[in-house]
Write a structure and sequence with these properties.
Number of domains: 1
Largest sheet: none
Shape: globular
Number of strands: 0
Structural class: mainly alpha
């Protein structure tokens, strides 16, 4: 482990997050975050399943890359998830602005911070931006 414990834990957290959301979306148990994202954007559930499969594969690939198994398509998969997440963050911000009077400011800032942390982790993981 030449990158340090922080990078090691960060990679594991991103991988587990993607795997968990992938499984939740595929099993349709709750759909995870992808159900929320695509429901808010008005897309059919097929998009939830496709994004979930991509996330699951990307999460597994991140874990395997930590064991020095290389995946040439990993950056692309993570970038796809990052783009979905970025669109979701933009839609959420527009939604919050449009109903500013009924928004709980601190809860909204907390959710925005979480979404930006996920987005930034995905961008860093993609190696195209990190």
């Amino acid at each position: 482990m030449k990158e340090g414990i922080g990078v090691f834990l960060w990679k594991i957290s991103v991988a587990l997050y993607l795997i968990a959301n992938g499984v939740l979306g595929i099993t349709k148990y709750s759909g995870g975050d992808f159900r929320i994202i695509f429901d808010r954007m008005g897309f059919p559930s097929l998009f939830v399943t496709v994004a979930s499969v991509i996330a699951l594969i990307a999460g597994i690939a991140i874990l395997l890359e930590m064991l020095n198994v290389q995946f040439p398509f990993l950056d692309t998969l993570i970038l796809i998830i990052a783009i979905i997440w970025a669109v979701y963050v933009i839609i959420e911000i527009v939604s919050w602005i449009s109903k500013a009077s009924s928004v709980n400011l601190w809860y909204t800032l907390q959710m925005l911070a979480v979404h930006i942390m996920v987005l930034s982790s995905l961008l860093i993981a993609s190696k195209k931006f990190g």
